[in-house]
Amino acid sequence: MEQSEELQSEIAQKMSLDQIRYSQVWEDHLLLEAGLQIGPDDDVLSICSAGDNALAMLLLEPRSVTAIDMNPAQTALLELKLAGIRKLSHPEFVSLLGVREGMDRQKLFEEIKSQLSEQARSFWEAHREDLDRGLINCGRLESYFHTFYQEHLSELWSDEVLHGLFQKRNLEEQEQYFRKHAATPEFEERFRWYFGREKMAEQGRDPAQFEHVEEGDVGGYFFKRFSYACTKLPLHTNFYVEHFLTCRYRDLSIAPPYLRPQNYERLRSLIDRVHIHTGELEGALGQKPKGHYSKANLSDIFEYMSPELNEAVFQSLGTHMRSGGRIAFWNLLVPRTSPQGLRNILRPLPELSTQLHAQDRSWFYRAFHVEEVI
């Protein structure tokens, strides 16, 4: 695991980087695949988070995928996943992550820990309780979702209503079912409260992540986006909404791509193409010659930056990445795109971006953007 030495970003100076904040990735891999158009000659740079989308893009068989995160807990999580894929069978791997029950996770960890870097091994030795809990739900955000499921949703919806949402229907019937059985006034009120700014900052995310947010009714915004996903997009194959509401995947063949049994052996054959960098984005860019990276998944990093830092990072991407390459990123609560003054190096693709965002199965995000490196 490489370690950068540059100064931490604004957000890194304001929130702790000693815990797993995301044990799953809540950004739709299909948007990345359609927006970035990854091919065999691509060298992909990806915000790591829990590593799910780095592995989804790896299945497109680019030349390399570099997963970067300023939080060493997140890169330790991806290291563990890579070690599990390398050494374990698929049933053992999904048991290690807590996706399925029935095996001794501590024993599975003992089988793979020699594959980890010293930093990652030390992290997991100190967080063995997360293995017992199930890694898939150990992140700060996932724990917050799990509490909503256990303490609130169970009071508002019967099991029949909850599981009925995921029955195969046409969109008109699905919308009618959601409006009649699920979107009750009581559910909306509880949802808006639980996913409001104050409670999310206290328990789900971090106050520093709301620094640049001007949205007044955060809970209302999230309810609107959640309702869109439940009425305008098919739910029976939407594993993002399914896990948010049930904290499990009923069918791994339509789960995140790295968990699908049909992808497992091919994923194992490709994992040597994955590189992990713990540190800042500009540090990763600077370690390679200009033009090395051709595609980049940047999550929603820009909304945690000041406008000044935003411009500097966009400029660094535009000057370091390969001509003709693409970057893709989401906006959650803060609208961000590259500044107008950088149109000589970055060209937004608004029509494609809007089209893809309308299909976004992960219901949180305000916008999805694809930009081309000139």
Folded structure, characterized:
By secondary structure, this protein is of the alpha/beta class. It has a domain at 140-254. The chain is 46% helix and 10% strand. It is built from 18 helices and eight strands. It has helices spanning 29-36, 52-58, 72-87, 90-96, 105-112, 118-125, 128-133, 140-156, 159-164, 171-182, 185-194, 197-204, 218-232, 239-246, 264-270, 281-286, 307-320, 350-357, and strands at residues 2-3, 43-47, 64-69, 274-278, 295-297, 326-331, 346-348, 367-373. It has an eight-stranded mixed beta sheet. Helix 3 (72-87) packs across helix 6 (118-125). The longest helix is centred in the middle third of the chain and has 17 residues, at 140-156. It is globular, with a radius of gyration of 20 Å. It starts with a strand and ends with a strand.
SSE layout:
Layout: E1 2-3, H1 29-36, E2 43-47, H2 52-58, E3 64-69, H3 72-87, H4 90-96, H5 105-112, H6 118-125, H7 128-133, H8 140-156, H9 159-164, H10 171-182, H11 185-194, H12 197-204, H13 218-232, H14 239-246, H15 264-270, E4 274-278, H16 281-286, E5 295-297, H17 307-320, E6 326-331, E7 346-348, H18 350-357, E8 367-373
Parallel strand pairs: 1-4, 2-3, 2-5, 3-4, 5-6
Antiparallel strand pairs: 6-8, 7-8
Helix pairs in contact: 3-5, 3-6, 4-5, 8-11, 10-13, 11-13
Provide keyphrases for this structure:
single chain; 374 residues; alpha/beta; 8-stranded mixed beta sheet; 18 helices; 46% helix; disordered N terminus
